[in-house]
Amino acid sequence: MDLGIAGRTALVCGASKGLGYGCAQALVREGVNVVIVARGAEALQAAAKSLRETAAAAGGVTPGVKHVAADITTAEGRAAVFAEQKDFDIVVTNAGGPPPGDFRDWDRKAWVAALDANMLTPIELIKATVDGMAERGYGRIVNITSSSVKAPIDILGLSNGARSGLTGFVAGVARSSIAARGVTINNLLPGAFDTDRLRHSMEVGARKSGRTVDAMRESRENGIPARRFGTAAEFGEVCAFLCSMQATYLTGQNILLDGGAYPGTY
């Protein structure tokens, strides 16, 4: 299927690896010019090189790939991105989740950091780009959030709170006047995906429980109806579809990708 977005320009955050990289890769395959941003310069450069190879292999007009090593959760980081590229047709927001723990141990500083990264930064990016998208008559904003928005996890209270705040904000702004001007905003909610973050959490869990990492992995996968973890590539393909011309009538939604793990009807 031709998604009809070749030649568009996208900003993809947290794109040096994992789910952000998967989204950038899928967009590049569709002929989208991308600006990728992440804090680690070395990993980001490697990702940019790989994306250029993906673009060349896809054939057709080769899209451009730019990279900005910056912390998108800061005003300075966002300024560096917009100095590189002013206008975007597509924005994929993404930032690492806050650490797990007991809510009794979190002070105001911890809460503000979580809100800055997982609620306020996406809102700032939406604010900076949505009016230009509306003026041009096309825009796609996809926020990578978490399955915990649908099924909160007790030890991830910082994430539950911050991401739920973003979800409420998006529910309103996606249905504002921009919806009639070709701009959609949706959230992608990942469950368990085979990323460095998940592997690290399993290693930590294995050390604490005395089990092997393989045993931890098997246990986690057996709890998912699909009996496996998701891949960054398939996550990226769903993201690319949400950015497509075919998804024009889809906005203000929370798309859950978890292999069927969420047990609810709605």
Automatic annotation (TrEMBL):
Pfam families: adh_short_C2
InterPro entries: SDR (IPR050259), SDR_fam (IPR002347)
Domain of life: Bacteria
Record-annotated membrane-spanning stretches: none
PANTHER family: 3-OXOACYL-(ACYL-CARRIER-PROTEIN) REDUCTASE, NADPH-DEPENDENT REDUCTASE BACG
Similarity-based family: Belongs to the short-chain dehydrogenases/reductases (SDR) family.
Protein name in the entry: SDR family oxidoreductase
Species: Candidimonas humi
